[in-house]
Amino acid sequence: MITDQDFKKGLEILEEMGREDSLFEQEDTYSDMYELSVGYLWGQIWQRPHLSLRDRQIITLAANIALGRPSGNHSHYRSAKKIGITHEEICEIMIHVGMYAGWPTMAHANRQYRSVLAEDKLKEQNNI
Q1: Phi, psi at 2, each rounded to 5°
Q2: Which of 74, 62, 65, 17 is closest to 41 using CA atoms?
Q3: What is the location of CATH 1.20.1290.10 in the chain?
Q4: Residue 117 and residue 104: Cα distance in Å, rounded?
Q5: DSSP per position, 60-118
Q6: Could you give the CA distance from residue 54 to residue 9 in angstroms, rounded to a whole number?
Q7: CA torsion angle for 82, 109, 38, 120 (degrees, to 10)?
């Protein structure tokens, strides 16, 4: 059962990771989907003890890279950078996962990450 406290915690962690706007598609499509994502995934799972926020972000990146997700990684690359995971660490995660999940997986992750870097650079240039 998702409590109001779980939902609040989920919103807080999404904000900390710079993802507070990332689930509005779900909210627009079906509010139950949004509430499960915020309250359960972010409010309960991402808040569990024994692993830090950084640990969970690294695990999530590794899993998404290994599974060759066509979407979703973009926001996780941004979240990783927002919470202090460096460019070099992100690239090392891609290399490490690529050695276990296959070279094409690493290449796909690299293309996704490069598109994030390019989008962020363009946003930065337009804000200056």
Answers
A1: -95, 125
A2: 17
A3: 51-128
A4: 20
A5: HHHHHHHTT-SSSHHHHHHHHHHTT--HHHHHHHHHHHHHHH-HHHHHHHHHHHHHHHH
A6: 17
A7: 40
pLDDT of residue 128: 61
Which of 10-14, 26-30, 90-94, 108-112 has the lowest average pLDDT?
26-30
Phi, psi for 90 (deg, rounded to 5): -60, -45
Asked if the model's pLDDT at residue 1 lies above 70, the reply is: yes
For 51-128, give the CATH class.
mainly alpha
Q: Which contiguous run of DSSP H or E holds residue 68?
A: none
Give dist(CA 109, CA 125) in Å, integer.
24
The first and second tokens of residue 7, run together, are: 């939902």
- Average pLDDT score over the chain: 92
CB 6 within 8 A of CB 39: yes
Query: Over pLDDT 90: what percentage of the chain?
Result: 77
**Nearest CA among 90, 21, 37 for reference residue 61:** 90
